Amino acid sequence: MTWRAWLNVWRTGLKILVLSVPVVMIGSISTGCSEQSSSSSEPDPAPDPSPDPSPEPSPDPDPDPAPEPDPDPAPEPEPDPDPGPTPEPGPDPDPEPSPGDCPQPANGELPIVPCKVGFGITTPAGSGRNLNPPKTTVHKVTNLNASGDGSLLACIEASGPRVCVFETSGTIDMTELGMVSINNDYITIAGQTAPSPGIMIRGISLRIEASDVLIQHVRVRTGDAIEGRTPGDRDGIYAIGKSDDTSRQPHNLVFDHVSVSWGIDETFTVKDTAKNVDILNSIVSEGLWYNMHPKGGHSKGLMMSAENMLVQGNLMAHHDDRAPLETTPSAITVNNVTYNTRQVAMRLSPLSNNDAHSGKTRTTTVAGNVRLKGPNSEESRDSAWVVVNEDRSGSKIYIENNLCDGWENPSWPCVRVDSEKGESFRVKEPPLWIEGLKVLPADDTLDYVLTNAGARPKDRDEVDSRIINDVINGTGQIINCVGTKNFEYDGRKIDCEAANAGGWPEMAVNTHTLTLPEEINGLDDSGYTNLEVWLHQLASAVE
């Protein structure tokens, strides 16, 4: 079956499934592991790199073409193009292991998200397991205030191992703050503890400068309020440190089931001052296009610059470009879906664009991903999954078993090479791997991502539900604004009527009283603390 025919069958079948029966989630055990079947054995893992400490960060490489002066925000979809080539088989097309066969890191440390692997996954985060005996503090978020007692900010600004849990749902509007920084190490923000429909953080750039951080099941929606953070630097989530302060170079960061939308610069950025970062099962959507950014059109998705990044199981939808942009010497990008990018999906920007990675060579593994065109995907541009711009001698790039809607390159499927040496960097085996990493075949990625991505996938809010339905139906568009009302900024008229998100969602305010487990710092037979086991169970209930 051709790729286009398969896509049409898939979309029809998924619509019927969504209309006729509720989504049946995969079973779990008390630690929250996802249960899936396994088939063939995994490939021989490549040894993990041992890169040098991150040097000075460089500015945004911004290799993208300048935006067109007058894009059509919602053109009619083009007729189906000729089908692309059948993808070559990729590495280890097995699903995740069953609960009885969870991969364990070689050093014996527990993954902070059960049954997952990654570069930063063995962080203790806020669990307190970095201490002997383990000790953490639970901060209950009891109100939706931007600051003060019982607020999320009070937990963020506390020190020592800590876990933020929520006794309320609703919107935490922090627009007046512009930016909120996580500066103190060892924190877990556990959005799964909130009552339905969960937590949305509105109006800020959430900046991470601390190490050992886990953020789960929250929505970060930045937006276009004039009084917010400077538009040219208004990312949604922004992991960055300081090159001249080794205590502020964040490492061991895990973002699991996060939804981030409506950034004006990047929607999600991980800079080269960070290291060991995992972005799992998340939604990165609707970077704002012709809004307040000084460059004009600037709807960008995810920028990956940190050494040692795993990006797995995510949906990136409705962006002009950078979905993702990868400029790091060591990254694995597997089982992600990109939908309705105006330009390409992924760019491998050359390391020479980033002074922080001077003298390093690239080891990149890209497999099992899907790029779907949408109403804004321009026929005049290419539809490759990846554009390779790398020119650093000695680089090793593995890009196989991906699916791309309407792009033909039989010699290297789903790849366009835009550098003189790029073709010579192609290798037959993944040059970078993580022990225990399991990758779905590309034709299983869509179903997995649409079922599992984003905050509280069993309890999605209207924004994430709309994005998911856009992918299923081939609808939606790149947007200029959150709301429908035009406004002016810096002498420019911002046209919101033409392309908008329909306004801020109404998040119901519900409350409950959380009863913590006894002896929260005591260790369960699994090795996790009693508090962690409780958090895993609550996560499983909304996944």
Uncertain segments of ≥5 residues (pLDDT<50)? 16-32, 34-59, 62-100
Q: Can you tell me the CATH class?
A: Mainly Beta
- The rounded distance between the terminal residues' Cα atoms is 32 Å
- Coarse morphology: globular
And the CATH topology? Pectate Lyase C-like
Rounded Rg: 22 Å
Protein name: Pectate lyase
Organism: Ferrimonas balearica (strain DSM 9799 / CCM 4581 / KCTC 23876 / PAT)
GO molecular function, one term: lyase activity
Keywords: Glycoprotein, Lyase, Membrane, Metal-binding, Transmembrane, Transmembrane helix
Could you explain the architecture of this structure?
Residues 59-81 have a biased composition (Acidic residues). One of its GO terms (molecular function) is metal ion binding. Keywords: Glycoprotein, Lyase, Membrane, Metal-binding, Transmembrane, Transmembrane helix. The chain is α/β, with parallel strands linked by helices. The protein has a single domain, classed as 3 Solenoid (Pectate Lyase C-like), CATH 2.160.20. 11% of the residues lie in helices and 22% in strands. The protein has a ten-stranded parallel beta sheet with strand order 1-2-5-8-11-14-17-20-23-26. Helix 2 (152-157) links the parallel strand 1 (137-141) and strand 2 (162-166). The two termini are 32 Å apart.
Would you spell out the secondary-structure blueprint of this structure?
Elements: H1 3-20, E1 137-141, H2 152-157, E2 162-166, E3 170-173, E4 179-182, E5 187-190, E6 199-202, E7 205-208, E8 213-216, E9 219-221, E10 237-239, E11 251-256, E12 259-261, E13 266-270, E14 275-280, E15 283-285, E16 300-304, E17 307-312, E18 315-319, E19 325-326, E20 330-334, E21 337-341, E22 346-348, E23 363-367, E24 370-372, E25 386-388, E26 396-400, E27 403-404, E28 415-417, H3 442-452, H4 462-473, E29 487-489, E30 492-494, H5 530-542
Parallel strand pairs: 1-2, 2-5, 3-6, 4-7, 5-8, 6-9, 7-10, 8-11, 9-12, 10-13, 11-14, 12-15, 13-16, 14-17, 15-18, 16-19, 17-20, 18-21, 19-22, 20-23, 21-24, 22-25, 23-26, 24-27, 25-28
Antiparallel strand pairs: 29-30
Biased composition (Acidic residues): 59-81
Region (Disordered): 31-113
Transmembrane segments: 12-30
